[in-house]
Design a protein that fits this description.
Helix content: 40-55%
Strand content: under 5%
Number of helices: 9
Shape: globular
Mean pLDDT: 91
Distance between the termini: 24 Å
Largest sheet: none
Low-confidence stretches: 4-11
Structural class: mainly alpha
């Protein structure tokens, strides 16, 4: 249940243009990174591998001023980013895979491609271990969160539920604060719902500690 930020909107036909998605991402990369990996220890969240439906829903919320973020305002108006562009960038980002480690290679072997290795290293991302009781966090997560956010926190693409594993811990904490203070709505069908208030800060600390180990 934790941090389900919006429900998926009805699917509509869309002719996906990956080249357009890649071009739009060149603008997004200024904050969110070339591969949607985010940065600055969570000041900018990871978008890579997030469900396309979830990314699309958030872009619509930014556009309609239902989710406040001054940095996003100038990029998401109807003229700057029409609906078709939103769909292209959402899918483009959702299909980026970030590995957590480079596979071992013999750099002295004939045919070793140093440039390809360098490019691959740029797509490596692993969340630093967060403080907390990992085992307690695993138990709480499995009891309270995995039915929505999926086993080990990798989200649900079909239902547009965001991934929590692989996301910056500092970013997750900022979202908790915004959800608790109603700056963001957890469930638009039940805007008065107070799910995050049911968890203590220590329980969330332990959950985030567990989630930070999933990509080890």
């Amino acid at each position: 249940m934790l941090l389900v930020l919006s429900l998926p909107l009805p699917a509509q036909e869309h002719d996906y243009d990956p080249d357009n998605g890649e071009e739009i991402n060149e603008l997004c990369a200024g904050c969110h990174g070339e591969f949607g990996q985010g940065g600055k220890d969570g000041e900018y969240p990871r978008l890579a591998t997030q469900p396309a439906g979830f990314i699309l829903d958030q872009l619509r919320l930014f556009r309609d001023r239902k989710r406040k973020n001054l940095a996003m305002v100038e990029y998401v108006d109807h003229r700057q980013l029409p609906e078709s562009d939103m769909r292209d960038i959402a899918r483009y980002l959702s299909e980026i895979t970030l590995e957590t480690r480079l596979p071992p290679v013999d750099e002295s072997a004939p045919g070793f491609d140093a440039y390809a290795r360098l490019l691959a290293s740029k797509k490596i991302m692993q969340i630093p271990r967060a403080p907390g009781d990992i085992e307690k966090g695993r138990k709480i997560y499995n009891k309270e969160c995995d039915s929505c956010h999926g086993k080990e926190g990798w989200g649900n693409h079909k239902k547009a539920v965001p991934m929590l594993a692989g996301q910056y811990t500092n970013y997750l904490w900022r979202q908790v604060k915004q959800l608790r203070t109603k700056q963001r709505i957890h469930d638009p069908d039940d805007p008065e719902e107070e799910l995050l208030d049911e968890f203590t800060d220590q329980e969330l600390t332990d959950i985030f500690a567990y989630l930070s180990t999933v990509d080890d």
